[in-house]
Amino acid sequence: MSDDVAAPAEFEVPEGYVALDWRRGFVHQIGPLYRRQGAGGYAMGFLVEPHHTNGMSNAHGGMLMSFADMAWGHVVSVETSSYWVTVRLTLDFLSSAHLGDWVEGESEVLSSEEGLYVVRGRIWTGERTLITGTGVFKPIQRRDPRPGEKAFQAASG
Prior knowledge:
InterPro entries: HotDog_dom_sf, Thioestr_dom. This is Thioesterase. The protein has helices at about 25-30, 60-80, 150-155, and strands spanning about 15-20, 35-40, 40-45, 80-95, 100-115, 115-125, 130-140. The relative contact order is 0.17. The chain has a single domain (about 15-140), classed as Thiol Ester Dehydrase, Chain A, CATH 3.10.129. It has a 7-stranded antiparallel sheet, with helices on one face. By secondary structure, it is of the alpha+beta class. The radius of gyration is 16 Å and the shape is globular.
């Protein structure tokens, strides 16, 4: 039996990014993904590899949607140290990412009421915005805080 997922490309990860150690489930299929944390906030990124592309060697829209979901929902993990689910994701596709592009995404919390987080997000490569949109996310289960999360910082500080 063969596996059509190519080995990860050799490339230099942009400064500040570290690989996410997500090895199970869906994320294993679409990775590798990376995370950056700094004074400017939290971002995620990935290199567009052959297994992310459509027939035109652009990042598949489903890949970009999945990445937006994770990159934008990640702020709920940072804020609450919780697992979360997506309630709604609204995206506007503005441009495409090409094979070999480094794609980044981040979001900001607009509101958090009644157990729901509303965020605004952006996905880009270089100077080109690929997607803008909003998401509604719901924390569903608390977990131990991880480095970079507010609860972890409070416990460590």
